[in-house]
Amino acid sequence: MRVMGIDPGLTRCGVGIVDGRPGAPGAMVAVGVVRTDPEAPLADRLLALDDGLRAFLEEHEPEAVAVERVFSQHNVASVIGTAQASGIALLAGARLGLPTATYTPSEVKSAVCGSGTADKRQVTSMVTRILRLKEAPKPADAADALAIAICHLWRGGVKARIAAAVDRAAFKNESAR
What we know:
Layout: E1 2-7, E2 12-19, E3 27-35, H1 42-60, E4 64-68, H2 76-95, E5 100-103, H3 105-113, H4 120-130, H5 140-176
Parallel strand pairs: 1-4, 4-5
Antiparallel strand pairs: 1-2, 2-3
Helix pairs in contact: 1-2, 3-5, 4-5
């Protein structure tokens, strides 16, 4: 399965695309950052973000999109921009009919590092190891995006298979009546 992980941000939005399956290391397909001009009008920045994400989607054709869920911070202005970027990221995947999922930062850290309280350095180190990269992806937004994609591969794929099995069982029970 190919997953596009997105670390949403209005100025820097990390994008990481990984091929893999649950329980396997996976392989990095692409990594990058979509940047917008902080001086530009908000609508232009959101459009630039959408254009940049669409270019990654069209070039790499992922089967799913995973986005880091926005969490409350002390800086309300930062949270609002991140939430707007998150909405654009989810819309970009949904527009193409791709399944989308969100994960909290602690879910991503736990999936990749084994601890929901891991720091950025630990996440980057584990992403580098898991994907067998020669050097750490930079900037941190890019490494985080790869971590989000890995989290979805390892957790989201399993969740989807469980949900499908439950649906099949429900259908069989309904058919048997």
